[in-house]
């Protein structure tokens, strides 16, 4: 897994490129529970299979209904752990248990081919979920743990890893929340002039 990022769709219309800086965090933004259910993109097992088959994971395979349910449970755990880390709160014990349980399954196994790398068959969804859980463990326990951030916009819950050299990334995407902030600041300055 190398490059990260995906197009996110807004239920009000439009889409934008969002790079969370880690595939496991990209996965956390595929939908959610409660107020985030409007962003759900994994409605059926085929939706999860298609998401897993896209780069950088490129783990094409079939997905069962049970694996879809496990994926959504893992996704919620990653979401909760990332937000806790970004807010410097203790990681929720339930999220930790879910991530550890997913990581205990065998991960995807890389295999060298004449033209690069592929995952050794058979590729199963549980292996892909294990790989995502292991990436989250590495992220939360590694040198970038202190760089997990929530978008600085007051109404954007997206989380990302700030991989910028100075560690100064504030927005989920400059073309979305960053530009909105600049526009609001400009209007406020003009209103006071």
UniProtKB/TrEMBL annotation:
Stored Pfam families: ABATE, zf-CGNR
Superkingdom of origin: Bacteria
Domain Zinc finger CGNR residues, every copy: 147-190
InterPro entries per record: ABATE, ABATE_dom_sf, Znf_CGNR
Regions crossing the membrane: none
PANTHER family in alphabetical order: BLL6575 PROTEIN
Protein name: Zinc finger CGNR domain-containing protein
């Amino acid at each position: 897994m190398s490059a990260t990022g995906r197009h996110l769709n807004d239920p009000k219309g439009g889409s934008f490129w969002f790079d969370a800086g880690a595939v496991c965090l990209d996965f956390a933004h595929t939908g959610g529970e409660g107020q985030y259910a409007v962003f759900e993109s994994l409605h059926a097992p085929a939706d999860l299979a298609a998401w897993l088959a896209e780069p950088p994971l490129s783990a094409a395979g079939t997905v069962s209904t049970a694996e879809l349910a496990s994926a959504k449970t893992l996704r919620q755990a990653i979401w909760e752990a990332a937000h806790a880390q970004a807010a410097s709160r203790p990681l929720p014990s339930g999220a930790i248990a879910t991530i550890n349980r997913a990581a205990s399954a065998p991960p995807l196994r890389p295999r060298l081919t004449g033209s690069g790398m592929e995952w050794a068959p058979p590729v199963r969804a549980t292996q892909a979920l294990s790989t995502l859980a292991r990436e989250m463990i590495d992220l939360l326990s590694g040198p970038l743990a202190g760089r997990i951030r929530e978008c600085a916009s007051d109404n954007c819950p997206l989380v990302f890893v700030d991989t910028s050299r100075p560690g100064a990334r504030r927005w989920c995407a400059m073309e979305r929340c960053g530009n909105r902030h600049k526009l609001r600041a400009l209007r406020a300055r003009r209103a006071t002039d």
